[in-house]
Amino acid sequence: MHFAQSLATLRLDASNPIPMFRQLYDAIKQATLTGMLAPGTQLPPTRELAQLLGISRQTVLNAYMHLTAEGFLSGEVGRGTFISDKLPFPTAGKSIQPKSPRLLRPLSERGRRFVGEAVQLNTHTGMPRAFRIGMPGLDIFPFDVWARLEARRWRKPQHHLGYDDPAGYAPLREAIAAYLRTARGVQCDAQQVLITSGSQQALFLAASLLLSPGDAAWVEEPGYRGINASLHAVDARVCHIPLDEDGLCVFWAAKHFPDAKLVYVTPSHQQPLGITMSLQRRLELLAWAAEKKVWVVEDDYDSEYRYTGPPLASMQSLDKAGCVIYTGTLSKILFPGLRLGYMVLPPPLVDAFVQGKAIIDRHTATMPQMVLTDFINEGHFSRHIKRTREAYVERRDTLLKALERHLSDELEIGNADAGLHFAVTFRRQRDDRAIVRTALERGIELRALSSFYNASQPNCSILPSGLLIGFAAVRDADLKRSALALRDLLKEVK
Predict the structure, then answer these.
(1) In this structure, are 418 and 484 located in the same domain?
(2) What is the pLDDT averaged over residues 104-129?
(3) How many CB atoms lie within 10 A of CB 30?
């Protein structure tokens, strides 16, 4: 019994969360796949193998039963159990070579557009810390309320365990439409609302359904890397459009890229510079888009957090031609792990986008949508926005004062009237990416301003040098302490 002798060295770990019958099953399966056990090899009787390994006979029976059900083993009463002789695996001594780290064959041309630096998006690891951007203050979120609402929904789960409408949970679409009409002036009804798995999915849907390979799309320069990744993935022609104090330079863009099929803008709080697009510039863009029949994707992230004056109405509210696709996210208001976003679509696009959403992931998880519906309808959502807006003003002011006190000779602070972060530029040229790397080693998260510019210009010395600094994720004491740490770091890193 060569196999029995080899199994003498096998040690099943009772403390392992994987059941012991599964551990034995895996060992026999891998020995078969690698050729250690040739087709036709007889296995030890269950009682003998159980004694050899010091386990119960039932454990061996369970492993044999699963392997037989999958076709790895065969047997007859009175003859024993054998490795199936119908398997096309190598004979003993001719084992399969370990898997190569190289691809079996290259990715498709389309697949290659989904990998590489041009489409790489940032992720967060660990607990929130200064100065993480794109992260709300989790210490303010009413998790007790959310847990209570979720527990109430789980008491009768049978109504939301099946496949759901790809467009999203209908009551949530109603609640979001009502909120957007009131808070952002968006002209819509619930039928135009599509629930997505975050705003990134909304942008990918727009790029995929509205652009053919080679079609031109305007994006802000500097701008949000997420839209650049989506456009690159669908093989669109990305046109980087400069900004001025009023936002996207429409006249310049129309002159240089008149054949564009789509425009992406962040008019309420430009990412990353924080510029608010002026009313005149919004109307100019909408007039051009209406004349040329071009889609405009309005990414209205951070719109709830405007600290100087009342929130501005959305650009969609000014659209008379039906060319604006409005996108938003709950990540900045609630928490990113929720993965809920939404689109407000012109009526002619609704059916196509709902079908596109269904193809990508069938539908967004229903339970979080139900809990969010209750959270909105019972007033917790509006109270949370009010509470966080007040807290973020205090945190922003604390950080601005600390930077002014300790780093005014190093940094020039950009627009900080809205959002959860702001940009700063260095008063003398620095390698902002090197500073970001050093800061991360010391437990401080920053984003290099140069990384938001056109990636075809890799030499950051020719790009504006600065940092994006978030203030919402941590409390005042951490902001003050981290501002001092940043001052010390800049003294060391020249």
Answers:
(1) yes
(2) 78
(3) 11
CA distances from 253 to 153, 230, 261, 298 (A): 50, 20, 12, 17
**Helix 476-492 vs helix 432-441: crossing angle, to nearest 10:** 120
pLDDT at 121: 74
Choose the final residue of a domain: 322, 354, 378: 378
The whole-number pLDDT of residue 6 equals 58
- In this prediction, residue 245 has a pLDDT band, given cuts at 50, 70 and 90, of very high
Cα–Cα distances in angstroms (integers) from residue 7 to residues 106, 232, 409, in the given order: 39, 52, 70
Task: Tell me if residue 417 falls in helix, strand or coil.
Answer: coil
For position 433, which CATH number holds? 3.90.1150.10
Q: Provide the token pair at 340.
A: 């809920």
- For residues 359 and 215, state if they share a domain: yes
Number of structural domains, the chain?
3
- What percentage of residues in the chain have a pLDDT greater than 70? 92
CATH code where residue 48 lies = 1.10.10.10
| Residue 135 domain-assigned (yes or no) | no
Report the pLDDT averaged over residues 17-45. 86
